[in-house]
C-alpha cells in the first residue's frame, strides 16, 4: 500500500479488474485513494485515520466470521463514514453519489489521530478564535447548571470554558475539566485554568468518574472529533445523574464550519437534528432543544432515567 495520504481506503477481496465508474467518480472529485489488496495478503491499516470513506470491492468468499478488514468496516459504520460495496456486475450507478458524499465528509480520526491533531495546535488554539467568549457564555447560560452543582467540561481543551462554568455553579459548586490530549491540558494549566477546578487527561469514552457523579456536562466542539460518538454519549450518560443536562456546543453552526473546511453538509452528519435525536435516545439522553444557525450550534439534552 502507498504511504501517500489518501481520502478513500479501498479493500479488494479479489483480482478482478477495477470498475471504471468507481475510478471515474473518484477522479472527478479529486479523491486520492489507497488500495489494500487483501486477496494478495496485504495487511489493512490499524485504523481509518485520515480517511473519509471506504470502498469494498468483491466478496471475501471465506467461511470465517470475520474476514480481513472487518474491524475497519465496523469502525467506519460506527463513525457513519460513507461505505460503497462493489459486488461483481456493479453498474456504477451509485459511484458518483458516493464520491460526492465522500468529498464532503470529514476525515476520520482515531484516539491516536485526535491526540496528534490537537497536540500540534494546543499552543495556538485560542489565538485562532479569540472572540468566542460571549457565545460560550451564552451557551453555558442555556445549559443553566444550578448553583452548587457539579459540571463536567468534556473535551475541555485549553479550559477556556472553565472560568465561565465556575461562575455559573458558584463557590459551592465544582467544575471538572477532562481532555484526551495532554498538550491541551498542559496549556490549560499554564493559562491558570486549574484554579477553577481539576484538569484531567482522560478519554471521554472511559471517564475516571463514578456513576451519576455530575449534574451537567458541557461539551464544546467534541462530537465531530470522536471515532465513536455513541460510546462517548453513553459514557457521559453513565456519569450524569438522571435529570442532569448536556450541552453539545460549537461557536459556529454546521454550515459555517463545513464551509470553513471546504465541505458541504452531508446527510450523515451526526449533529443534524434528525440524526442526533435517535442517537441521544439510544445512549441515555432526550433532546430538548437544537439551535443550528450561523452564529452557533447548541443541542441541549436531559439525562433520562436508567
List the defining traits of the structure above.
306 residues, alpha/beta, Rossmann fold, 2 domains, seven-stranded mixed β-sheet
Q: How would you portray this structure in words?
A:
- This protein is α/β, with parallel strands linked by helices and 306 residues long.
- It has 2 domains: 8-108; 115-303, Rossmann fold (3-Layer(aba) Sandwich).
- The chain contains 11 helices and 11 strands.
- The chain has helices at residues 20-28, 70-78, 95-103, 111-119, 125-128, 133-143, 162-169, 182-190, 229-239, 254-260, 273-282; strands spanning 8-12, 33-37, 53-57, 83-86, 150-154, 174-179, 199-201, 214-220, 240-250, 285-293, 296-303.
- Strands 7-6-5-8-9-11-10 form a 7-stranded mixed β-sheet, with helices on both faces. A 4-stranded parallel β-sheet has the order 2-1-3-4, sandwiched between helices.
- Strand 1 (8-12), helix 1 (20-28) and strand 2 (33-37) form a beta-alpha-beta unit.
- Helix 1 (20-28) runs parallel beside helix 3 (95-103).
- It starts with 7 loop residues before the first strand and ends with a strand.
Amino acid at each position: 500500500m502507498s504511504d501517500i495520504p489518501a481520502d478513500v481506503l479501498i479493500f479488494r477481496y479479489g483480482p478482478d479488474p477495477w470498475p471504471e465508474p468507481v475510478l471515474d467518480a473518484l477522479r472527478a472529485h479529486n479523491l486520492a485513494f489507497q488500495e489494500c489488496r487483501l486477496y494478495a495478503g496485504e495487511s489493512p491499516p490499524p485504523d481509518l485515520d485520515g480517511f473519509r470513506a471506504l470502498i469494498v470491492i468483491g466478496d471475501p468468499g471465506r467461511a470465517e466470521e470475520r474476514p480481513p478488514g472487518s474491524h475497519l468496516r465496523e469502525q467506519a459504520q460506527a463513525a457513519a463514514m460513507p461505505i460503497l460495496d462493489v459486488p461483481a456486475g456493479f453498474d456504477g450507478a451509485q459511484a458518483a453519489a458516493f464520491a460526492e458524499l465522500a468529498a464532503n465528509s470529514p476525515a476520520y480520526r482515531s484516539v491516536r489521530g485526535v491526540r496528534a491533531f490537537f497536540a500540534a495546535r494546543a499552543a495556538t488554539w485560542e489565538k485562532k478564535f479569540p472572540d468566542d467568549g460571549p457565545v460560550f457564555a451564552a451557551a453555558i447560560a442555556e445549559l443553566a447548571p444550578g448553583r452548587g452543582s457539579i459540571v463536567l467540561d468534556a473535551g475541555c481543551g485549553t479550559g477556556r470554558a472553565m472560568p465561565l462554568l465556575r461562575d455559573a455553579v458558584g463557590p459551592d459548586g465544582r467544575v471538572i475539566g477532562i481532555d484526551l490530549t495532554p498538550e491541551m491540558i498542559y496549556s490549560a494549566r499554564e493559562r491558570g485554568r486549574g484554579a477553577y477546578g481539576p484538569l484531567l487527561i482522560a478519554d471521554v469514552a472511559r471517564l475516571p468518574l463514578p456513576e451519576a457523579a455530575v449534574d451537567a456536562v458541557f461539551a464544546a466542539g467534541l462530537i465531530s472529533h470522536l471515532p465513536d460518538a455513541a460510546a462517548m454519549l453513553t459514557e457521559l450518560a453513565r456519569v450524569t445523574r438522571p435529570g442532569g443536562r448536556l450541552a453539545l456546543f460549537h461557536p459556529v453552526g454546521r454550515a459555517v464550519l463545513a464551509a470553513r473546511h471546504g465541505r458541504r453538509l452531508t446527510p450523515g452528519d451526526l449533529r443534524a437534528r434528525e440524526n442526533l435525536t435517535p442517537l441521544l435516545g439510544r445512549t441515555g439522553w432526550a433532546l430538548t432543544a437544537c439551535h443550528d444557525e450561523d452564529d452557533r450550534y447548541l443541542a441541549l439534552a436531559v439525562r433520562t432515567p436508567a
